[in-house]
Amino acid sequence: MLNPWLALETGADAAERSGQVRRAHEEFVTRGAIGADVRHVVAESWRRCAGAAVEPESVAGIDLADADLAAYRAAHPLARVMPLFRELLGTVADDGAHLLSVCDEHGRMLWVEGHTQVQRLAERMNFVPGARWSERYIGTNAPGTALAVDHAVQIFTAEHYCRPVQEWTCAAAPVHDPRTHRVIGAVDITGGDHLAAPQSLALVQATARAAEAHLAELAAGGGTSADGGPVLNALGCDEALLDTGGGAPLRLGRRHSEIAVLLAAHPEGLTGERLALELYGERAVTPVTLRAELSRLRGLLGPLLESRPYRLRTLPHTDHDAVGEALAEGDLPAALAAYRGPLLPLSEAPGVVRLRRLLEDRLRRAVLAARDPALLEEWVRTPWGEDDLEIWEALLSGRQGGPASQARTAALAGRVRELRRAYGLESAAAQGAPGSGPRSGSASGSASGSGPAPRSGTSYGPPSASPRAGRRPYGAQGESHATYRQRSRP
């Protein structure tokens, strides 16, 4: 298939394809096997659903209703573009065969609109405002999967993971805040098999881009983002982006990125001596060096940068803040979605390294404590979590004795054994022994009892013989997190 996000190839027979996918779905939920007939994006989604222990007969749950729902969606950034959604997709929603829906970044439905008769049919599967339609709650579906992979996608009949949804076909595209670039929701059209045509995917993509452009116009006119105020993005990138609302975002150099991040983390300001310590540590650096850096930065930021002490006149909202706020609210899925990677991953400035480790450790501990298979799975699928043995062990531990397929459990056990051997925690001979696997209790510590299980932290790449020695820093060999992430996406 030329376009992997489309459900049907041009000229394909919809009924025949639906039968193929239905048989493949049954094979997966009963035996854990995925055949060649299943698109890669769907296969990966099914695996995430199995990892989250989603039941194939599930129906979406209702999170919000009545006054709570009305207040929540009125305050949501996408409320500002609902007139645009209705203008561009209103005729589709009124034709008696389709529904227009808009959800937030967590997959919670905010609006579901269309012909009354079609809405009644959709109510049977709780496709209604206030229901949670993220993958981890209701399996593969266009809005939920679009949010999970951050890409427009069609989901056709039995490609839906949950059987009550398999009579429908849908196409959805994520919508981003134009200044922070974070996903803030998705727009979707849902109906019959004919929505598997390329036009439906192009339509929702164009609608999402139009909404982002309109949000950008609103932000430029009001001087604020959807979240309000200047925005500083520094997670997962070597050079921070600062958007003050006065035009295109400003890309800061590496040293200027470090200074901006440190000042954003210290609203009270920093003296020159303290800022030098946060930037250079105990290295011998003359005060002139720091003053020169700050002078150049002031040339870029103008009156935003003040001195005595050094501070930012208007405190920006950072993506670092977004993760911390979501954790404080107990919204772990939102925290993971906002975490685009380690903070300025190539920086060795002591203050930045401390902030980086504090945030990652806080997020990682929350993922471990939650023991949610979907969140554990999400972590190990990232460049910074792919070698995190303790998370892999927790994921395997949660699968044993549950509804997971034997094939998937065996794959998890194999990955745990591979990492344990790479970290020097199991001998090569033990790997080949019948029934060998992770040692009991290893989810909370190493097999030898000498300390916590190894983890990847801010590193990526194959583990070395010891948990720490020889590890490459994240983003090594000149590759930024953004480049690595783009290259590693399916």
How large is the radius of gyration?
24 Å
Strand content: 5-15%
Average of the residue pLDDT scores: 81
The main sheet orders its strands as: 2-1-5-4-3
The unreliable regions are 222-227, 431-453, 456-490
Q: Helical stretch count?
A: 19
- SSE pattern, N- to C-terminal: HHHHEEHHHEEEHEEEHHHEEEHHHHHHHH
Largest sheet: 5 strands, antiparallel
Using DSSP, what is the number of strands? 11
Describe this structure in words.
The chain is an alpha+beta fold and 490 residues long. Helices cover 45% and strands 10% of the residues. It has 19 helices and 11 strands. The protein has helices spanning 14-31, 40-51, 66-75, 82-93, 116-123, 135-138, 142-149, 198-222, 254-265, 272-280, 287-301, 319-328, 332-338, 350-370, 373-380, 389-399, 406-422, 428-432, 481-488, and strands spanning 99-104, 109-114, 153-156, 169-176, 183-191, 231-233, 241-243, 250-251, 305-306, 311-312, 317-318. It has a 5-stranded antiparallel sheet with strand order 2-1-5-4-3, with helices on both faces. Strands 8-7-6-11 form a 4-stranded mixed sheet. Helix 15 (373-380) runs antiparallel to helix 16 (389-399). The longest helix is centred in the middle third of the chain and has 25 residues, at 198-222. The two termini are 14 Å apart.
